[in-house]
Amino acid sequence: MARPHIEPFVDRDVAFRKFTMPGFPKGMQYKMLSLDPDSGACSMTVMYEPGYRQPPGMSYTEYELFIMTGSITVGDKVYGPGSYFMVPAGITIGALSSPRGATGLMFYNYGEPSFVESDSDHPRAERGKFAAVNAYDDMQWQSTNFFPATAPGCLVKVLHFDERTQAFTFLYCMTPNFWQDNISYHDCAEEAYHIWGTSWMMQFGDLPTGGYFYRPPYINHGAFGCKLGTLALGRTDSRLYNHFHFNPWTNVEENKERAASRVQHWMPDLYKWINTHGHNHPVDFDFDHGHAHGDMAHHHGDGQVEHTHRKKRRRRK
Amino acid sequence: MKAIPHKRSREVEAWLKREIAEQKTRYRKIVAEQDALAPKRDKWVADFLQRIQTRGTHVHFNMMRKVRPEEIPVRPKRKFRVVF
Fold this sequence. Notes:
The complex is a heterodimer.
Chain A: E1 6-10, E2 17-18, E3 28-35, E4 42-48, E5 52-54, E6 57-58, E7 63-70, E8 72-74, E9 77-79, E10 83-87, E11 96-98, E12 102-108, E13 116-117, E14 131-134, E15 142-143, E16 154-161, E17 168-174, E18 178-180, E19 183-185, E20 190-197, E21 199-201, E22 205-207, E23 211-215, E24 224-226, E25 230-236, E26 243-245, H1 252-266, H2 268-276, H3 290-293
Antiparallel strand pairs in A: 1-23, 2-3, 3-4, 4-12, 5-11, 6-13, 7-10, 7-12, 8-9, 8-11, 10-14, 15-16, 16-17, 17-25, 18-24, 19-26, 20-23, 20-25, 21-22, 21-24
Helix pairs in contact in A: 1-2
Chain B: H1 10-36, H2 38-54, E1 57-60, E2 63-65
Antiparallel strand pairs in B: 1-2
């Protein structure tokens, strides 16, 4: 089970609550934006109370943190608004404090929030994938490079790109008087939080400052408009392709079928291969083979595409 | 390595259970609010279908094309859902 369709949700309509997850120090508050009922992966608005202190430690799951207001100190470095962290599972970050408090967005991508006090990385951690950048000061706006592209006036800063899934996290803005007159859907899930500003969508109406959505794949959104400009943080869980059209009434199944038909016409050889191989378990030579690690869904010609194997264990001789 | 296997404590399971229940309530509230928006949405859709015939629909970036009247879709009889 994946996350439900949460759209729209305005977090300013609800109060912060104390974050009482075991392991986390006192002094952190949160508002839940969306949650995967199975994995516990979630997106939250968080507030570090003035004086918050957290010892060095790690999380069992990859997480991302974006500072919206105030500042945090990690080690001896101060991170203010616009600071973004991509912290892979098991990576230890230094002592974190917030003398004057801060608010931010936190995304636990593959499991529930966790914090384990530690001075060193977990043996399986991938330190090279840690990233920290100030999205406001260190990066410049650029046009989206999707084809087909969003209308002029929607600009992005890509903060993180996953080379395997092509999921990405990005800051985006809509210029004043931005408009786009089409309807879009994607093959990926998409979520976004309005840091500042109000935008409008034909299905859902206005999304103001503090507005959020988590939108599963193939759900129509648009036309779009924005009178005064918007600054937002967006994320996808895999590759984003803009399936544009102008039929307001199509549903998820129809959109999905259209997307599949497009794959059939755009990549006919691949489409045929996928549909004729009995053991549908494609292997990417750049990455681990799923069977060896038991984490890749596939089927054995029976259409049960969510099927996986457990990791094989060698018997001791 | 996206996540490191670990065992959830009972406290964590209880926290998740509460959050899942609250999310279900939140979802139902959103559906009700969006159902109430239907009359406004119908007007927005009518305006949109008019605009794409006169000013055009976006095809790619700043490329637009005008939609011919015979291309305008017909509303199906089923309920118009926007939250799935």
